Amino acid sequence: MLLEENLEFGFELQREEVSRLKGPLAELLVAFREFGKTTQATETVATTFSGEQVRVPTYVNEFWTSKQRAANSLHEVSYRACFKPQLPRFFIKRLTGPDEVVYDPFMGRGTTVIEAGRLGRVPCGCDINPLSAALTRPRLHPPRLEQVTQRLREIDFSTVKEMREDLLVFYHPETLREICALKNYLLERKEAGQSDYIDDWIGMVAVNRLTGHSPGFFSVYTLPPNQAVSVKAQKQINETRGQEPPRRHVAEIIGRKSRQLLRDCGAGVRRVLSAVCDRAQLLTQHSAVTPQIASGSVSLVVTSPPFLDVVDYAADNWLRCWFIGVDPSSVRLTVPKQLEPWQLAMTEVLRESHRILRRGGHVAFEVGEVRGGKIKLEEAVVPCGVQVGLKPVLILINDQKFTKTANCWGVNNNAKGTNTNRVVVFRKGNRRERRERRDMSTNTNRVIAFRKHS
Ligand SMILES: C[S@@+](CC[C@H](N)C(=O)[O-])C[C@H]1O[C@@H](n2cnc3c(N)ncnc32)[C@H](O)[C@@H]1O
To answer: Would you kindly state where each structural domain of the chain is located, as residue ranges?
Structure first.
């Protein structure tokens, strides 16, 4: 069978497994029984910007689950509204082969990018917040634990140039001194062009340990690590709980967390990562304009954009940004509160995704449930894809019971509105499909009302 006609095949599967795949992704989803449930098939009806109805086959099951074997420990950094590694893994394994490029235009903590590297795909990502690359890059080039502990011994944790006294609501004075010394060390090394992958790793771990709700963090008890509270709110927490920041040892905590992150990082994982990660491309910019990524170079986009106003990334990340020397108010996040501007922003990102995708490449675009399910973002994103020439192939709904642990790692789905993962899968058509589409649009010569609004 021609490749172009069977783009939903799982290219990565071993030869003997190929015979199991008798059809495109839709058929695989229908036949899916891995966690004991049968798939429900339904249909989502969406309306394009020119008013036409599009019927998209929709499949519901527990396609990935908390019962599955835990993901690689390298993923264990917290980030607000991150998805589980099982989500990108599901699509990467089924829709790409080794050495192909997998891209996430809203990279966050780098879940797609790290999983792509782990599976021997070339990782590519973009996020407008510099924090994202600072969290992701070091885990594509993980140092050895001995290198980390050696470097921690060499760093002078006592020389401080800038002490932010207001942060004493979070930290014991000696701990704050160590944090500020580490910050100065890392920024000075960077400015002098001297920092290396071990420094980057230490910075990434420190960012993750800044605040949290257990003795594994530098701070006194506060909210989970991905939700830094303001100084004022922390004062309140301290008063209510009658607490004072205890002494924590920064180097010790970084060493402990590094050990945990590197737990599953054996020779095999390192070999796979090093084979592809030198070709990794991580960008810090608006993902609607990414000229650094070559046209037609990407096989799969797996992503999850900001969902209307569900998460306040800027407020959540102010302390982390301070640590890496970034003014959070300078980060221009796309966080539209209304559906129409959200659709406009997503259309522009999908237009860019269409440019960089190879023919037959896919986009798996995850949207959660927002505003108690009143707004169906999966219906809202279908016209955005259609507008730029992507074909909506299907919608996958992962219906999963969330665990406490998942909440703690930022998949805070029950509290802030997301109960299921809804993934719209688009495909970039082959030559024939593109010609047909062009002919159709010339014939109908419609005025796209949506573009007028914008
Ligand atoms: C839902 S989070 C992505 C989480 C990611 N899937 C993960 O697992 O970590 C959305 C991300 O979009 C980023 N973002 C917001 N506006 C952006 C823009 N215009 N261009 C690129 N990234 C943007 C935010 O900084 C945030 O990291």
So the answer is: 3-65+74-140+265-439, 145-260
142 lines ligand 1 (CB under 6 A): no
Ligand 1: nearest atom to the Cα of 79: 9
CB 301 within 8 A of CB 357: yes
Query: Which residue's CA is minimally distant from atom 22 of ligand 1?
Result: 127
Cα of 288 from ligand 1 centre, angstroms? 12
> Does any ligand 1 atom lie closer than 6 A to the CB of residue 409?
no
Identify the CATH homologous superfamily for domain 3-65+74-140+265-439: Vaccinia Virus protein VP39 (3.40.50.150)
Which atom of ligand 1 has the smallest separation from the CA of 81?
A: 1
What is the value of pTM for the model shown? 0.88
- Per-residue pLDDT of 355-406, as tens digits, reads 999 999 999 999 977 777 778 899 999 999 999 999 999 999 998 765 443 4
- DSSP secondary structure letters along 110-174: THHHHHHHHTTPEEEEE-SSHHHHHHHHHHHS---HHHHHHHHHHS-SS--S---GGGGGTS-HH
